[in-house]
Amino acid sequence: MTTSAFPTISTPAGEIPATAPAWNRQRHSQMPSHRYASVYDRVEVPLVQRDWPTARIEAAPLWVPVDLRDGNQALAEPMDPDRKRRFFELLVAMGYKEIEVGYPSASQTDFDFVRLLAESDIAPPDVTIVVFVPARRDLIERTVDSVRGIGNDVVIHMYTATAPTWRDVVLGKTRGELSQLISAGARDVLEFTDGMPNVRFEFSPEVFNLTEPDYVLELCDAVTELWQATPERPVILNLPATVEIATPNVYADQIEYMHRNLSRRDSVILSVHPHNDRGTGIACAELAVLAGAQRVEGCVFGNGERTGNVDIATLALNLHAQGVDPMIDFSDIDEIARTVSHCTLMPIHERHPYVGDMVHTAFSGTHQDAIKKGFAEHRRRAAATGEPENEIDWRVPYLPIDPADIGRTYDAVIRVNSQSGKGGIAYLLATEYGLDLPRRLQIDFARHVQAHTDASGAEVTAAELFDLFEATYLDPSGPVQLKDWRSGGDGASAVTDVTLMCDGRTVASTHRGIGPVDALCAALEEMGHRIEVLSLTQQSIGSAAVTYLEYRSAGRTGWACGRSDSVLAASMAAVMRAVNVLEQLQGFVGVGVHADLAGDHPEHSAVGVDDERGPLDRHELAEQATFDTELRGYLAIGVREQRIVEILDVGEFGLFGDRVGADADPVRPGSGELGCQIPEMAGLLGASRGHCGRIEEQHHRTVGEQAGQAADRARLIRQFELGNGVTRLEGCHGWLRYAVCMAARRPRSGRIVPVQTTATQAPGSDAGSSLAVTTSREDFRALAAEHRVVPVTRKVLADSETPLSAYRKLAANRPGTFLLESAENGRSWSRWSFIGAGAPSALTVRDNEAVWLGTAPKDAPSGGEPLAALRATLDLLQTEVVPDLPPLSSGLVGYFAYDMVRRLERLPELAVDDLGLPDMVLLLATDIAAVDHHEGTITLIANAVNWNGTDERVDEAYDDAVARLDVMTAALGQPLSSTVATFSRPAPEHRAQRTVEEYTAIVEKLVGDIEAGEAFQVVPSQRFEMDTAADPLDVYRMLRVTNPSPYMYLLNVPDADGGLDFSVVGSSPEALVTVKDGRATTHPIAGTRWRGSTEEEDVLLEKELLADEKERAEHLMLVDLGRNDLGRVCRPGTVRVEDYSHIERYSHVMHLVSTVTGELAEGKTALDAVTACFPAGTLSGAPKVRAMELIEEVEKTRRGLYGGVLGYLDFAGNADFAIAIRTALMRGGTAYVQAGGGVVADSNGPYEYNESANKAKAVLNAIAAANTLAEP
Questions:
Q1: pTM over 0.70
Q2: Is-contact 267 231, C-beta < 8 A?
Q3: Does the annotation flag 378 for ligand binding?
Q4: Using one digit for the tens of pLDDT, what is the confidence trace for 669-724?
Q5: Which CATH architecture has domain 50-344?
Q6: 36 is catalytic
Q7: Which among 16, 576, 939, 1005 has the fewest CB atoms less than 10 Å away?
Q8: In the annotation, is 1222 catalytic?
């Protein structure tokens, strides 16, 4: 039996139903469908006389967008006031006349927005404002207060869940008790709105579709009676399918039952609000309108809880496609989509009906051809009738509406990828560039397009399509050049003079009695280049001309094109393109680089190979490649003129090769960016496509066993240049001797060509002393010409040093120093540890303004808003990455406290700030020691700042940096006293901020808030305090041993006088966000189990965790939160969940972890990525802002560091920040540790208390052990 490639999927293996026809071989599956009841068993479906099946929609219902309330609640990051206002203005511009704007009793932001509408004129007088409120007296009063003074019509929308499950499980009320609650709420609405004639009323029996029909009818009639509904002042009865559980026809029956049986039907506006749990929200809404609904609530593009609310855009454009005016304007769908995405921070799916980028497109060749013909026929009909194209009947195949109706252009319809047809390709070239390709040329070019898109794996735009066409057919350059031509006369008297040049030789000839094109072909044949013209098609495009030439030579048929200001000149250019294409298919250049790994022989010889037969056999090439030292690694790149055709590797494991193919992208002369242009270069960088031999950790073994690192290969490829007949290839590995090989332009003889080789030593190898400075003065001057911050480095052998010993020698707990380390998954140590040996200054916050402690950088801003000062500082010191340096070589290192969020969001200020910590401390890290655990070396880095670029200042900065390197080097050479110590592990004696009873009360309060719809999750915490006289380094040592994590840190924060204010010691498993080379990454962590004592126990616990629905649901929520956070700063469409919900094991626990990435949008920085994700959802809750408001209500003191982040922002635009958990703040003999956990609807108070205490124990235990350290 074949093993399944998907072991987690249980292929249905039950019986084939006895009633199944022979052609249906589906079997019963293992899905537990028996757990779910049919809708007919869950609720009575009324039997009605159905008119809806034969009804027609002939007019649009009243559309009511709820994006600003329901949609906003469902955002991981609700809209701030600016985005909310922008969305409201969009809705007004589109023509919506009734807009639900918020839930003012639930959020201060919503309350303030409603007040903005009351106190300004941004709402036109014909727009009705709707506000949402539950049937609770206090909340109704606050809601009415929010709308006082609004001149527009206002609707107070009161709701209560009425279905049996909600009554029994959530509310704990009988039918009668719930009826009394709703009636009381309706009376409260009347009472508080007395004297407000512009107010009307709306009632929603939430989960209407699961409520007994007689009961919901009873409730609705009672409310309309209380509110005294009349035709002049009708009541809105909104009937939501809050959770879809049936086919749409059932919902239609329920709506028609209400439509027929309401007691005051003529005084009621019957409204519906379908959700989309089953994916049938659109159908439910359409059938509901057929059944009598007059009003539809939904979101513009279907945002909302779970799978979303009904999608108004689709509903409206469905009407448009049936000839019914939707009464809403969608004529610029792209502007609408951009605005909605900006406001919600959520992308719109590419396949979203009508709106997505790909819905008015075609990739399939048959579809493209049909659409092309449809457009042509559409234009013919318009021309024949004299009507505008946008007014005549629409009959184009595959497209339900004219894309122009919604602001899309025809060129967006045809999309080209590896599956595209020639018709679509030709259509784009015709519509965009006026090129009318002959049929056979369409077929030929389609092959080139398919090869290109197969290689890239992506579609091409019209512009890229034209670039490919131009490169394939239009470029006449090459070794054979038409220097001049002249023609006169006609017929038998025609005379054409042709002057050609090839390989430096000029040949002139005269031809009589034939036309210029034939004359050129004859002249070429005299030089040995026979071209037979098979067809010649000429076309005028505006003031230019294009010629399409089909030719044959040596049995090969091909196409070439020419473009010029005259038809004749274009034809001559097409012939020259043809001959140069043929010329480029002859000859081969091999370029070699030899890496001497032993380092004993810096001299090398290599060969270039030329053979007019085409590429040499790879074994033949290897045999002709000779070296005067042992052949350890050889790279040969086959080049035909400016096309890479073959990559050959000769190494210890044999001869490997990847053939690129004749259609590889041309190399741009002098570009130096080969690796970016040839997709097959991925094989060279370690992707292993087509290679034999061993691939290890994506390091391709072609330059010897130790030298095949992908980064080195990438740098080597980036420096490959092809231009002016010179091929240059140079390596740049820091410890590998490398050679620069230059090959002359290939001759035509076919012989082996010697290659001149210049040996170059590795950086820093020119001096024999261990105190050599890797960065020479000349290198420094060159870097200072283009960089503000320039690192001066020295690498020393330090295989007997540990990060802790180096820290003691270089930092010794001085203010302004730090130690950063990492243990991957709590087990193996990563390559680098970083020691901050000195910081001349620190950017911090005092009295809500930015302040520099110490000597601030010249021109750095001081005072003003802290984040603005930080941005200005990063701009001031911005520099490019210097190659071959460790990941952290300069930047700002420190923390953002949790309370920094008050500068990003408006939160109530209820908690006491008893510790008075700065919201931000960032050390200017000028002197850094990077410990390389793999090499056993330490790279000492002294950053110099070039302020004015003068030679004197540059040399002064260099000398100062070298002097600091000398100080660090000398410090490393000093002996240390013994650090061997005895210790014990006593139980920590600490003080908790809350008792079990107090913490339980907090949890119960938050559970009530969650059940009331305030939030999905809230993360409360409490602080623990412990007396200690331990050295912060000793606490770090114990924490490092007992709880190794991906982020470990020791940070010594200075005070205003230069002394030590406090130290931060932590071991965090979780990053907030990292940014590297413009790519942002976050790793949501949620879902935990303690590690087992054996591998078998670990495996069982992993399975248990992966099967835990609650843990997985919480994890999914945080993944969505991370995706939305990155969506605020990343280019649309680039945010991806790359590794969802996998297990990572740490020293004591295992977690569910996912990876979310995105590419920063233009103009966005690493700091933008940090603030977009700040604070972490795992430490606040969801929705984030509302959760933080609730946290402020229940926590005694400000959090300070807890829930903030610690890490760095470098000056090259990168960042790496860990969430500050499992962290101690040590100040004045006291250690402060804070911990908490996520509260959801079913949380238990005592359990959550223990959870917070257990999380704090890892750090408290380390402090207790550090207190016992003593010399033996």
A1: no
A2: yes
A3: no
A4: 222 222 222 233 223 323 222 222 222 222 222 323 223 333 333 333 333 322 22
A5: Alpha-Beta Barrel (3.20)
A6: no
A7: 16
A8: yes
